[in-house]
Amino acid sequence: MGLTGLDIFKHLPKTNCKVCGFPTCLAFAMALANGKASLDACPDVSDQAKEALSSAAAPPIRLVKVGAGENVIQMGDETEIFRHDKRFNHPTAVAIAVNDNEDVDAKVDSINGLVFDRVGQHYEVDMIALVNASGDAATFKAAAEKAAAKTNKNFVLITQDVGAMEAALQVLAARKPLLYAADKDNYEKMTELAKANGCPLAVKGENLDSLAELVEKIVALGYKELVLDSGARETSKVIADMTQFRRLAVKKKFRTFGYPAIAFTSKDDPQEEMLQAATYVAKYASLIVLKNAKKELLLPLVSLRANIYTDPQKPVAVEPGLHVLGDVNENSPVYCTTNFSLTYFLVEGEVAATRIPSYIISVDTGGISVLTAYADNKFTAEKIAKSIKDLEMEGKVNHKKIVIPGAVAVLKGKLEDESGWEVIVGPRESSGIQKFAKAQFA
Prior knowledge:
The protein is globular, with a radius of gyration of 27 Å. The chain is of the alpha/beta class. Helix 5 links the parallel strand 6 and strand 7. Helix content is 39%, strand content 18%. It has 3 domains: 53 residues, 3-methyladenine DNA Glycosylase II, Chain A, domain 3 (Orthogonal Bundle), CATH 1.10.15; 245 residues, Dihydropteroate synthase-like (TIM Barrel, Alpha-Beta Barrel), CATH 3.20.20; 120 residues, Rossmann fold, CATH 3.40.50. Helix 4 runs parallel beside helix 5 and helix 10 packs parallel to helix 11.
């Protein structure tokens, strides 16, 4: 069990400086005790106190890294059960299984091609899960060599044969793959391999009790870079087990289960598999290993992941400023909207579809939508006029005309007074932009 808030408070400087984001040192201590804050946020804590509080300051779910250099996947470091309390930190990594006895080159090529760009976000498959399906160490090593030559993605090496794992590590050790898995029969040798190569180690139990016992044995051997697998494969049981991991770690400070969790899909039907994977993203999997690699099915999964791992207290925003669509010139239309991501990309998509090279000014509204920003005095005539001036739009176009959203037509008169520009009221909905542009600018 961790220290209480009062235990932690005794070690704090008691200056109530508020730099940590809390009104008092006692409030900060209570947040630390509940895993809601980091000790690093305190500017005055002593080295002696840091040493005394190290266990209390550690997040309930340990941070575990897969990969080396800049190409590192971070898992764990989570503090919450419910994302509305505070954001989840590290999005679920997605791995696609590649058997060592199939066409490795072709399968890895197909995985490399699973790249998506959507509403300003870039998504791709994070890892290759190389499976020793052949049961042969030499085949596994050869597959590792082929896969390594084809991709710079991170790896999960899946075999409980220590000899086969050693063979694959001769090729991939420098990439710090996740080793899957240590079980009750091989855990000593697998732990030795993981320690020697500095690789994270997945621990597979037969149930929660056997997993807890196995984790404690591995920790006693001096290794804590672990990822948990209860051994369950039926969907409801996997969800129940991963929920137990999170609840026991966060609520009870049960360090034995305070590690990231790995889940494997078991459905053969591709659509059912993605539904299964989606539930695992929602319920605490840090890594999911999929069997299928169909682009049209992966996009909804990675989009869901992005939504779940978005900070619920912070709107998704684009960079405010001037956005250029096409080969613009001095006659190009100038549109104006907010920097709320959904609003901006709806507008951008419709403006792009007009095939008329255009400018779009996204005003910094703190990432909120047009009407919400207007009601909150964040999308005003003064702010839009300032954007026009700061972006030096008069030097870019010769017409001094700007299109504003129809929902804030009331800004027209004041914006014309503030900016000296002619204000054209556009459609209320982005779906009307193409027809509007054809009438105004074609």
